[in-house]
Amino acid sequence: MKYWLVFILGTFFSLSSCNDVTLQKDKKIDLKQIRQRGKLIVLTENSSLSYFEYRDRPLGFEYEILDTFARSLGLKLEMRVVPNYGDLIESLLVGKGDLVAANLAVSLHDQVFMAFSKPYYKSYQVVVQLQSDSVIAEASELMGQEVWIRKNTAYHKRLRNLQEEIGAKVKVQFANDDLITEDLIEQVVQGKIRFTIAHENLARVSKEHHPNLDIKTRLSVFQNIAFGLRKNSPELREKLNSFLIKYCESEHFSALKHQYFDYLEPALTEILPIGRGQISPYDKLFKKAAKKYNFDWKLLAAIVYRESRFNPYTRGAGGAYGLMQFMPNTGPSYGVYPHSNPEIQINGGMRFIRAVYYSWSEIEDKEQRIKFTLASYNAGGCHIKDAQALAQSHGLNPLIWDNNVELMVEKLADPAYYRAENVKCGAYRGGAVNYVESVFSRYQAWK
Description:
Elements: H1 2-18, H2 31-37, E1 39-44, E2 52-54, E3 57-59, H3 61-72, E4 76-81, H4 88-93, E5 99-105, E6 115-116, E7 121-123, E8 125-130, E9 146-149, H5 154-166, E10 171-174, H6 181-189, E11 195-199, H7 200-209, E12 213-214, E13 223-229, H8 234-247, H9 251-260, H10 283-291, H11 297-308, H12 342-358, H13 366-379, H14 381-393, H15 401-409, H16 415-418, H17 432-446
Parallel strand pairs: 1-4, 1-5, 9-10, 9-11
Antiparallel strand pairs: 2-3, 5-13, 6-13, 7-13, 8-11, 8-12
């Protein structure tokens, strides 16, 4: 009998040590209290699918869903980035937020601690690796391989089950809690690690920025993706579920999925054929627009290639449109709308690039100024100003991009940095360094 008692107590304390939230009483906050507060607080992570800021605008697939939901309730939406993934559930249960939005896969394990909304999306897990002659084509080939993931995630659980299925060990390596899946994908791209795991929807977004990734190898069946709530928030859950049932059938949701996922395959049949000796079908328009402002048309062409592959009809994340991928709140300021013809798009884009270029008048070196312009066009000037401030605080030159400000830009995706006192902008997705390198190197080649 005493052995059973020891076993039961041991199991209890083992579970408690894994997650202290099992020892706490959930804080009672439901829809009534949220309405009194006047805002819906969402706990999230800084990622392409959850929440980030792009060109000074809050974006994210989950952010846009919940923004629509909050507005339907007459509430403001506040997104709170939780630096460590493992703290999301605990932060929810102690009342720091009302929902969790982190591309959560519904699982029996997590339902012990919290409730889930109705699923709003389905995705499956894939192996993320670099394209090569030795790619892992079957899940069983991960036997004995080193795979980097975050602890206690859906990927961790899947690898545990996979080991049982194949009867062999996978060398599971756990990343620091402050790293997100996109950070691990970046490490794959850089060759620091060979494998990580991601849901296909997120992996597909990353592959757009890094075409040399291989994401074809499936690791799971389709999994339901949903929002997390406290169990003692039944009114909020009921309201959210009623909203999702209707919203997921709406044209708005179809358009949202298209913006975040389907835009990765532009309608190439719409692009005009390119003649010999040309960069693009729009060389004459680039030259004409650039000549007005004494600008190098080849740089303008390099930006358009990176943004849209010269496709004037393509749509991007957050509703970005056209050759220059104008955001809906920016394009009209330059006379550019989704239906505008290529000449109007290029003229408006040239005016915008010129305005960004002259906003960096304190940078005397022309090449460095171009790089600051490209970074600002991609990430938004506010984030690059933050990177300048960080560079200066680290003893680096805030007026030089190469090996100075560029070193600080990617650190802005780390919560430890963007929460610092001298950082004014919100969550940053990352990618500006790769963008500058990609566009500038193509520009140099075309020169």
